Amino acid sequence: MNKILVTGGAGYIGSHTVVLLVEAGYDVVIFDNFSNSSKESIKRVEKLVNKKIELIEGDIRSKDDLQKVFDAHKIDSVIHFAGLKAVGESVEQPLRYYDNNVYGTVTLCEVMAKNGCKKIIFSSSATVYGDPETTPILENFPTSATNPYGRTKLMVEEILRDLYISDSSWQIVLLRYFNPVGSHSSGTIGEDPNGIPNNLMPFIAQVAVGKREFLSVFGDDYDTHDGTGVRDYIHVVDLADAHLKAVNKIDDFSEVMTINLGTGEGYSVLDMVKAFEEASGKSIPYKIAPRRAGDIATCFADPSYAKEILGWEAKKGVKQMCEDSWRWQSSNPSGY
Ligand code: NAD
Ligand code: UFG
Fold first, then answer.
1. 54: helix, strand or coil
2. Residue 149 among the catalytic residues
3. How confident is the model at residue 2 (pLDDT cuts 50, 70, 90)?
C-alpha cells in the first residue's frame, strides 16, 4: 500500500485523518514540529488503530528535516496540514505566518520535487471567500483575504497552481474547509487549543465543562435568522474521510482540483449553544458582546462538487458534532 506523508499529523485535523488512513490500510509517516500539538495525540492515535506510527520530528521550513523523511521512506503522496491558523495572531505576527505557512510550503514542494514526489493535498480554508455576496458558496466564487492568515492560504493556492502550470506531472488538490468541529467518537483525541480558544466550539465546550464562566456571543445584529453569525460546521471525522477519498482518487485528476468541504447547512451561534446544551445536559451561559472585527454574517458551502468529484458528502450532523466534542472535553478537561 502507498505511503503517505502527513505534515501536521499530530494536530487536530491531522490526527483524525491519520486514524482513517491507517484504518484504510495506508502506511503513514507523521511530520510535525509540535509547535501547536503534543506527542500524546500520536500515542492516542496509535492506541486507536493498534499500530505504531512512524514519526519524524521536524519543521517544514527545514530542507534537511524534510529530506530525512524522503531518505527513510518512499513517499507516494503528501497531505499537508502543517501551518499556523490563528487569525488574530496572524494580524500581530504577519511575518511569522508568511514564513511558516508560505515559505514552509514552498520548501516542502521543493524537497518533494527533488525526491520525485509530486502529489499533494493542501489544507485551504473557506476564509479565502472573504465576505461572499451570496450563499451557498461555490468553488468559482471570487476570492479575497481580510487578514494575513487568509492571505497565506490564498498565496499557497496560487503557488500550487503556478507549480502545476510549470510541470503538469504534479497532482494537486486544494481542500477548502468550512468550520471543522467535533472529535473522534472514542473521545480520546480532539481539539486542544492553547490558552483561550478563538473558535466557537472549543469555547462552548470549555464553558460546559466549567473552565470558563460564559460565552461572549460576538454580535446579535447580523442579517441572519436570530442575528448571530451563521457558519457551516463540519464534523472532523467527515473532513478526515474527505482526505482519504482525495488520496484514493488523486491519480485520476488531470488539473488542480479545488474543492469545498462543508455540509451545505448553516447554523447560528445560538443554534450551536442550544445543540451543545442538549448534547451535554449542561447549561451554557452567554452574554451578547460587540461584533468581532473581520467577522462576516453568513458562510456556508455548496458541497455538491465534493460529492461529484470525490464521491464524498458529510454524514454527521450537529447533534453528533456536539456529542463527540462533549465526550472529548468532559473526559479530557485539560486537553492532552
Ligand atoms: P493544528 O494547529 O491542530 O495542526 C497543525 C499542526 O501543524 C500542528 O500539529 C503543528 O504543530 C504543526 N505545524 C505547524 N507549523 C509547522 C511547521 N513549520 N513544521 C512542522 N509542523 C508544523 O491545526 P488544525 O486545525 O489541525 O489545522 C490543520 C490545517 O488546516 C492548517 O493548515 C489550518 O490552517 C487548516 N485549516 C484549519 C481550520 C480549522 O478551523 N481548524 C479551518 C480551515 C483550514
Ligand atoms: N463566535 C462567538 N464567540 C466566540 C467565538 C466565536 O460568538 O467566542 C462566533 C463568531 O463570531 C462566528 C462563529 O462564532 O460567528 C464562528 O466563529 P469561529 O471563530 O469558530 O470560526 P470562523 O468562522 O470565524 O473562522 C474559522 C477559522 C478560520 C477559518 C474559517 C473558515 O477560525 O481560520 O473558520 O474555515 F478560516
1. strand
2. yes
3. confident
